[in-house]
Every structure is written in C-alpha cells, then in structure tokens.
Write a structure and sequence with these properties.
Blueprint lengths: L1 E3 L19 H4 L13 H9 L3 E14 L2 E19 L3 E5 H4 L5 E4 L5 E10 L4 E5 L22 E8 L2 E18 L5 E8 L11 E3 L5 E9 L6 E5 H11 L2 H5 L1 E2 L2 E6 L4 E7 L4 H4 L7 E5 L2 E2 L3 H8 L6 E7 L2 E7 L2 E2 L9 H15 L1 E5 L16 E6 L4 H4 L7 E5 L2 E2 L3 H9 L8 E8 L2 E8 L12
Antiparallel strand pairs: 1-12, 2-3, 2-5, 3-4, 4-7, 5-6, 6-7, 8-9, 8-11, 9-10, 10-13, 11-12, 12-13, 14-21, 15-16, 16-17, 17-18, 17-19, 19-20, 22-23, 23-24, 24-25, 24-26, 26-27
Length: 461
C-alpha cells in the first residue's frame, strides 16, 4: 500500500554515522569559475526554486501501541515534511498530514533561518494545508507552472526534507498521469502525477519542478515496497484548493461576491458569476471579465486574486479585460455580516447555516433568465456557490456552479423552498436524500446520505 511521505513519524533520534568533511571554502570553486556546461537546466531550476522551499519539523502525540493493542499511554514522535512559499507575507502550502496534530511547527529556510509557523486553514480530503510564518521582510515565492500540459517522460525535480536530510534534490521523469491512489481506508487521492524522482518520508508538501524551475506538483505519497514510484498532486488542482484556504471568506470572514475560474493554460482568471448585492456587483463586475491585476498583484490564477485582497481594508484597483478592452474597476471585500439581498442579513446567514450544516452546500438564488426560453420543466433553482469540504455532497461529486433544482420530491426554486424542506418536511427524519441538479443544461441526480459521512452513489443521468 502507498504511504504518505511524512506519516512515517519516528520517536527518538536517528543514529548518524560520524562524517568527516572537508572545509567547503577550500573545495568549492568561486561562482565565476563554474563552467557554463555545468549550469544545466536542472541545476538552474533548483537554484531558482530553493529559496522558497522550506523544511518542516515538529512533534505530535500519538497513542502508544504495543503488540497490536492500544494502551492508555501516549508518546511523542518526531515528524518532518516540506512546504513552499506561495505569498511573500509568509503563507506556505504543505500537506495536511505534515502539520496535523503538531504542537509547534518549526520551519527552516534554505539560508538556515528558522521560524515557528501557525496553521491558517486545511482540507483533509485533498490533504492540503496552508501555514504561516511572520517575518519582518518579504519572502521569496515559488514560481507556479501548470499541470495542464504535462507529458510522460518529461524531466522533473523533487526538492524536500527526505528522511530529515534538508533540501534533498532528486531527479527523474513523469512516469504517468491521472493516477488514483488509495493510501488507507480514510485517505485517497485522485488524478495524481506519478514520477520516478525519488520521494521519501519528509518530501511531503514539497515541490515537483519542471526544467524551468516552475512548480508543477505537490509531492504527497510513495508506493511502499516499490522503487521509483512516487506521486504528486497536480499544481492546478492544488492551487484551487490553496485559493479557497487563503480566501478572505475563509480567513477573514469577508466576501467579494465573485465566482472565479482559473484558465491555467492561458494563465487567466475569468469571472464566472457575480453574486447579486455583492461588493463585486456594486463595482460593476460582469461574468466573462478576465482579471489581469488586483492592486500591485498580477493575477494569473484565482489564488492571486485572493492573495491581493487578503489583509486589505481599502478598495483595490482591479484591471479587467472586457471584450478585448482594458477596464479599471474597484473592489473591496466586505464583512459577511453585511451581505445584502433576499430576506436580509440574518436570513442569509441562517440559510447558509442550515444548508451548509445539513446538506453540505451554500446556496444562492439563480436568476429566472437561466430557465426562461429553454422550455425547462423547472420554475427556478439555487446555484451551489460552495461545497463543504469532506461533506457527503462533496463526496458525491456536487461542485460549485451546479444548480440545485430539487430535493427528494420537492422543487428548490427559492430559499423559502429550502427553508420549508429543512424545517417542516419529512427530510429531517430521512437518512438518504436525492439531489437533482442542472449541470451544463443537463439534469443529473444523486442520492446523498445527509445523516452521516457515508454517501450512497454517484451522479448519474
């Protein structure tokens, strides 16, 4: 079975053989004496990325197991992993299993500077987390590539804290794409990159780089007992999760009202939807706008927009490409408590709480124009704007952008319908509920077990 790279936490110290080393100053050639032939693309790639790669160390408490039985005692074990800086203010992306349960997260940079990090947000399902260190200066940020055009046999480099050996570099190729890997009964990964670049315990959360030094994956797992079989989360998927984890809504309880889509191949951020009554709607944003800059931040993916708004209290200048013409707009994220529209702030927050906790989705009314003129059997619907991580709805494949048109035997044309279904119908006494959604003008349904984390089926026509 595959093992997550960091989960082999070890108690006590690793015994090292005594090493005799020469004086580096006497053996290393000056930079200007290095032959250009030695500065291969892979060497340059590592030199470019290393300053933004960090080593992570920490301790966690685990149950003391002996002879396969659980005892009352616990013990401290050492853990290790890797992370990458995704924002100069100290935000670092890593695997959730690297920092899960760690009391003090110690981070070391390539220049030997050390910091203590705090967890910002995490998503156990995708096994990703964002941590933060606070410094008096801006930090170097990893350059993000794309996983949309990867090729088998393409050269790649893995950098990480392998078995505690900091900033270990290994080289290989992409062995395969789109691998689904089951690590344990509770953890699985979908659509991974397979590589033969050596990945070991401690590499988790570190970058898989292409020859240009751009990060194209997050190293996450190895195949136990095998040689040359490691796995990485594609960077395009990882960056979408990171965008949610550092979003102003997740971290600061504020919102902007934009539903964004990253076109990784074109390095574009496209506005898919603008929520009615939102700050974005007030400032004139439209679906189809391509956001090219927010303040001083060039935006190539959704994460860039969230980073630019994070920690800002004033409206930012936003440059959008609208129909081939550049337009300047303004945008400031506002407190969620100030959400307008519908039945008022209290009602909107109650709606989110009910649908979020019970169904695993956040909903907002879909304009009637979506259904008019299409001979639709539905008189309305509710767009899913967010799916709760690790909820039954997420496990069944429901995603943001789906339009909920029915629950069990009731249509969901308005928030009033959902309020009735959740409070006055027989649904609260049911375990399994059928969801009807519209996706790409096609009606699909799935049965979701809303009473537990277990789901029953998959979306189907």
């Amino acid at each position: 079975m595959p093992d997550t790279c960091n989960d082999r936490l070890r108690g006590g110290l690793i015994a090292f053989a005594t090493l005799t080393c020469c004086c580096l100053a006497a053996t290393m050639a000056a930079a200007d004496e290095i032959s250009p032939n030695r500065l291969t693309p892979l060497v340059r790639a590592v030199q470019k990325a290393s300053p933004s790669v960090v080593n992570i160390q920490g301790q966690k408490t685990v149950a003391d197991l002996a002879n396969g039985s659980k005892h009352d005692g616990t013990r401290q074990v050492n853990g290790m992993g890797t992370g990458v800086v995704i924002d100069p203010r100290g935000y670092i992306l890593t695997n959730h299993h690297v920092v899960d349960g760690v009391k003090q997260i110690n981070v070391t940079f390539a220049d030997r500077r050390k910091y203590v990090a705090k967890i910002v947000a995490f998503d156990p399902r995708t096994d990703l987390a964002v941590i933060r260190v606070r410094t008096s200066h801006l930090l170097p940020v990893i350059e993000i590539g794309t996983s949309s055009d990867l090729m088998p046999a393409e050269s790649v480099v893995a950098v990480g804290n392998a078995f505690g050996y900091e900033h270990t570099v290994t080289v290989g190729i992409i062995s395969a794409l789109h691998r689904d890997v089951q690590v344990s009964e509770t953890q699985s990964y979908d659509d991974l990159i397979q590589t033969d670049a050596s990945i070991n315990p401690g590499n988790s959360g570190g970058p898989l780089l292409n020859v240009d030094g751009k990060m194209i994956g997050v190293n996450v797992a190895v195949r136990a007992g095998a040689q040359g079989i490691g796995f990485a989360i594609p960077i395009d998927a990882a960056m979408e999760v990171a965008a949610r984890l550092v979003s102003v809504e997740e971290t600061e309880n504020r919102w902007h009202g934009l539903t964004l889509r990253t076109n990784a191949a074109k390095q574009q951020v496209v506005v898919e939807r603008v929520a009615s009554g939102s700050p974005a709607a007030d400032h004139g944003f439209r679906p189809g706008d391509v956001i090219t800059r927010v303040g001083d931040v060039k935006t190539e993916r959704r994460l860039d927009v969230e980073r630019a708004l994070l920690g800002t209290n004033t409206a930012q200048t936003v440059v959008v490409d609208r129909g081939g013409e550049s337009t300047e707009l303004r945008l400031a994220a506002e407190s969620i408590r100030s959400r307008r529209g519908g039945g008022g702030t209290r009602r909107l927050m109650a709606d989110r709480s009910d649908s979020w906790d019970t169904l695993g989705v956040e909903l907002e009314p879909e304009p009637a124009s979506t259904f008019s003129g299409k001979k639709s059997q539905y008189r309305g619907g509710l767009r899913i704007v967010e799916v709760r991580p690790n909820s039954p709805a997420e496990k069944e494949g429901l995603t943001a952008g789906d339009i909920l048109v029915g629950l069990h035997k009731w249509q969901t044309a308005s928030m009033d319908d959902v309020d009735y279904i959740l409070t006055k119908s027989s649904l609260p006494r049911m375990n399994q509920v059928r969801f009807y959604i519209v996706r790409n003008d096609e009606t699909l349904y799935t049965d979701v077990n809303v009473a537990s984390a277990t789901s029953r089926s998959t979306l189907r026509r």
